[in-house]
Amino acid sequence: MRDVDRLALHAALRRRAAETPRRERWPFEVGGRTVGSVEPSDARLLAARVAGVALDDDCLVLLPRCAGDAAPAFEAIAIALRDAGRLGRWRDERLPVLADDGSVLGAIERATVRVLGLRTLSTHLCGCDPGGGIWVQRRAADKTVDPGLLDTLSGGLVGARREGAAWVAESLPEALARETWEEAGLRPHDYAPPVHAGTARVSRVLDDGYMSEDLVVHATTLAAGVVPENRDGEVDEFACLGAHEVLARIAGGEFTLEASLAILMCAQAGLVPGLAPG
Fold first, then answer.
1. Contacts for 195-199 with beta carbons within 8 Å, 24 or more apart?
2. At 221, which helix (H) or strand (E)?
3. 218 near 195, Cβ under 8 Å?
4. In angstroms, rounded to a whole number, what is the distance separating the alpha carbons of residues 162 and 197?
5. Does residue 278 surpass a pLDDT of 80?
6. What span, in angstroms and rounded, lies between the C-alpha atoms of 184 and 93?
7. Could you write out the three-class secondary structure of 27-45?
8. What is the pTM of this model?
9. Pick from 207, 84, 188: which is nearest to 144 by CA?
10. In sequence order, what are the beta bridge partners of 210?
11. Mean pLDDT score, 23-33
């Protein structure tokens, strides 16, 4: 595939990653900051069922008296959406609720983030083989999003945890190492220190709501003889493919949008064997 084709492909993927909602959505504000968006029917439901949540014209607002300690309100929001049948599988995982400046305003059940249009952070690790190939995974057939598509070596959402009375986000190195262990069975000694390739925003419509996600992309090379092996049941198989075969499969729609962008970002940064920046 010629470089000009790669550039055109990257531009097409960027356009796909800037999808606007197909239905009306109202802003969701916490402490005067917009953190997400909700469909009007969900906004009305939450305003009616959750104490401390109200409508201000066409905006869902967490009232100031709750914003200082938003944990109870976020828990009540998640339960109200679950009880109304608006959520998929309850994960019992907490993700950070992020302001635009990256500050953490609390944490909420993972199943809610697309319904509420919350901004999420994800890590992606492009793993190269010492022999010049690229390690890719095939997502499990029972994944909620993009089942069966090809993906990067590992990737996943940055989670939240409690530190004392406050919720904090995982650091990016923590999230990357955790996801690489869970998805590929690899510890940091199994691969070279990851090199940052860039960050990209992906906005798109999903079955369970609206995705607004910042992809933080790194690349690495696995140690000689190391083969990834899934541990969490979310990957059906791994394969080591040549760089140009990967490009052809991206162009053929066999990869997730996020993985496609991540791999092309790594190529543009000169981090993929056999693919010069261009």
1. 195/219, 195/220, 195/269, 195/271, 197/126, 197/262, 197/265, 197/266, 197/268, 197/269, 197/271, 198/265, 198/268, 198/269
2. strand 209-221
3. yes
4. 30
5. no
6. 20
7. EEEECCEEEEEECHHHHHH
8. 0.94
9. 207
10. 205
11. 94
